[in-house]
Amino acid sequence: MFSLLSSRRIAVAAAGAALLSMTAACGGAANAEVCTEAQSLLSSSTTTLTSAGADPAKFNAATKKVADDFKALAAKTDGDLATAINGYASIWENIKVDAGNPAGLATALQDAGAKSQAFGNELTKACS
After folding, report:
1. CA angle 119-88-44, nearest 5°?
2. Residue of 41, 51, 62, 93 with fewest CB within 10 Å of its CB?
3. Distance between CA atoms of residues 34 and 66, nearest Å
4. Side-chain half-sphere exposure of 124, counting CA atoms within 13 A
5. Angle 77-74-38 (CA atoms, 0-180°, nearest 5)?
6. CB atoms within 10 A of CB 66
7. Taking Cα atoms as reference points, which of 38, 35, 55 lies closest to residue 99?
8. How far apart are CA 124 and CA 118, in angstroms?
9. pLDDT, tens digit only, all 128 positions of the chain
10. What is the b/e burial string over 27-52, where b = at least 16 CB atoms within 10 angstroms of the residue's CB?
11. What are the two backbone dihedrals, phi and then psi, of residue 125, each rounded to the nearest 5 degrees?
12. Across the chain, where does the E strand assignment appear?
């Protein structure tokens, strides 16, 4: 059976990889404030997921909260920056724990890792 704790580590790692990909990019952009907020959301997503513990309902609520936070941030901007931030929202929306389909979570997390890199690159470009 797929362990929630290991899946959470994977999700946190995906968030960390995305954060590292854009850490240096939030300096001189016209949307510097939104870029800084995006960086903060990426960083806080680790805490949000960790707070869910091993409870699948709390884990799903945590991923929904992160997705909703990204959507709200994307609404503050437009263009490539909004596209990248909305991309992160869609990643988090697709990470769900379903006790009846533990393999589905594993697949969603693998997809999240790949997409995080792509959206991280987009976010870096939009914020530089």
Report:
1. 115
2. 51
3. 16
4. 14
5. 100
6. 25
7. 55
8. 10
9. 345 445 555 555 555 545 444 444 444 456 888 999 998 988 888 788 778 777 888 888 988 999 999 999 999 998 989 999 999 899 888 888 887 887 777 787 788 778 888 888 888 888 88
10. eebebeebbebbbebbeebbebbeeb
11. -65, -45
12. none
Structure tokens belonging to residue 33: 């404030």
CB 84 within 8 A of CB 42: no
Write down how long the chain is: 128
User: C-alpha distances in angstroms, 100 versus 1, 56, 64, 105, 126?
Assistant: 10, 12, 19, 10, 39
